[in-house]
Amino acid sequence: MNSTTGSDTPTDNTAAMPNLFLPDVPEPLVRAAFARSPGNEIASGKLASTDSSAALVANAFGWFLQRPDQLPAFPPHADLDWPATRVDVERQMRFPWLGGRHPWLDTAVETPRHLIGVESKRFEPFRDAKRPQLSDAYDRGVWGEGMQPWTQLRDDLRASPYLFCRVDAAQLVKHAFGLVTEARRIGKAPVLLYLYAEPARVPAGALAQHREEVARLSTLVKGAAVRFAACTWRAWLATFTGPAALHAKRVIDRYQP
Prior knowledge:
Layout: H1 27-36, H2 53-62, E1 86-92, E2 104-110, E3 114-121, H3 148-159, H4 169-186, E4 189-196, H5 204-220, E5 227-232, H6 233-237, H7 243-255
Parallel strand pairs: 3-4, 4-5
Antiparallel strand pairs: 1-2, 2-3
């Protein structure tokens, strides 16, 4: 969802939805997190829309801010050292230089040995394709060992701007660069999860094209220092058990991811 510039389109004023947050989601913590980020999701009214990616993230992950150990493992990363020790929404991953814009991940999850950055998508992949923009700043030799698959993808996107039509691959490259820097700073292994919805009102052909592009990108960056995998919201929410299962039902009922 968020990148260095934000993504959702404003829809309604927050007054249109009195219950902006689902039960047991700590509203002050979520509001504080979004206030620190550049997306302006709350003040603009973006968070009031049930179509909002930001609202889905805020409510689904917000429930775990004070109970990170109850966060269900992401299916493609189930082999990591769960349970989680920290969950954030809207966390910045700074590049190894001062100034400029730095990426914001929708969610960051820490386990004892891993830093997992989550990029969430709902309707964004099915809107107009964006031409990749990767400035010369990303050519600096600061990313460390094992990042060649990501730097190669950076170069490929510059040479073939329409290599991907549904997946914002340039955004994922930036997130990988931010993640590897932040993970190195805190002494953990970087992981990037692409968590995407498949809305019912999106044509089947568009959904299939998106899935194909996700699989292709996964192959291109396989074995990189920033481990990448993708999962649907439905697949992850289906793993919720215990008290979290009721929360998952509420998320599905409101947002239909």
